[in-house]
Amino acid sequence: MVISKKVVLITGGGRGIGAATASLLAKENYIVAINYKEDEVSVKKLLSSIRLKGGCAEAFKADISDESQVEELFSSVIFKYGPITHLVNNVGVLARQQRVENMTSDRINYILQHNVTPYFICAREAVKHFKRHDDMSNCAIVNVSSAASRLGGANEYVDYAASKGAIDTFTIGLSLELAEYGVRVNCVRPGCIYTDIHRDGGEAERVSRLAPQLPLRRGGTALEVANAIAWLLSDEASYVTGSFIDLAGGK
Ligand code: NAP
C-alpha cells in the first residue's frame, strides 16, 4: 500500500497537550484519531473546533490501561480510516503529591499501568498497522515523557518521574528496533505546562507556583509542546530518531 494520507492516533487527546496536538495536526492535514477516557464534553468541544476549521477528526473512547480496549481502539481506527501512519503516545497520569516513604504498591502500580505499559502496547499495535504500508519510512512515533525523568520528582511524584524515565529508555530502544524499517521514534519532555494534570496531582495552581523559579520565568503552554510533537512527526525531522526535545523553560 502506498501511503497517500497521514492518519495519526493520539492517546489521551481530549484535553491538554494531546488536544493541542490534535488541533495542530488537523490543521496540517492529518486525519486525527483522538483517544480519550471519559471527558465527553471536552472531546466534543475539540471535535467541533477542528471540524469548524475544516479538519478531519474523530473521537475514540478507550481506557488505555486496558490491553483489550487498546486492541479494540486500533481496530476501530483502522475500520474508519485505514492503517495509521503516526502515533502520539501521550496519556500520562499523576497521583497526589507524596514522598516515596508513604507510597503504596497500589499507587505505584497505577502509575506504571498508565504511564509505561500502554506506551509499549500502543507502539506494538501501531507497528502492526505500519507494516501494512509498503514503505514505512513515512511512519513515526512520538512519546510524551517529562522533564521529571531528569529531575526526579522529589517530594511530589518520584513514581511518576520514574515512569517517565522508563519512557525515555523505551524511546531509545524502540527507535533502534524500528530504524531498519525507516520508522522514527522520538520523545518530548515537557516541564511545567498549564493543563489539568496538576489538579489531579493535588495542586491545580502548581505551574503558577513554580513558574517564577524557572529560567524563562513562566510556565509553558500545551501548544508549545504540540509544536515540537508536530515537528518530530513531520518530514522536516526525517533524519531524527531516538531523540529528545526538552520543553521545560530552561530547567
Ligand atoms: P491532562 O490535561 O490531564 O489530559 C490527560 C488526557 O489523558 C485526557 O484527555 C484524559 O482523558 C486522558 N486519559 C487519562 N487517563 C486515560 C486512560 N486511562 N485512557 C485514555 N485516556 C486517558 O494531561 P496533560 O498535562 O495534557 O499531559 C499529557 C502528557 O504530557 C502526559 O503524558 C503527561 O505526563 C505529560 N506531561 C505533562 C506536563 C504538564 O505540566 N502538563 C509536564 C510533563 C509531562 P479524559 O479527558 O477523558 O479524562
TrEMBL record:
Protein name as catalogued: NAD(P)-dependent oxidoreductase
InterPro entries registered for this protein in UniProt: KR_dom, NAD(P)-bd_dom_sf, Sc_DH/Rdtase_CS, SDR_fam
GO MF terms, alphabetically ordered: glucose 1-dehydrogenase [NAD(P)+] activity
CDD domains listed in its UniProt record: SDR_c
Pfam family of the protein (one): adh_short_C2
Family recorded in the similarity comment: Belongs to the short-chain dehydrogenases/reductases (SDR) family.
Domain Ketoreductase, chain residue ranges per copy: 6-182
E.C. designation(s): 1.1.1.47
Keywords: Oxidoreductase
Coiled-coil residue spans: none
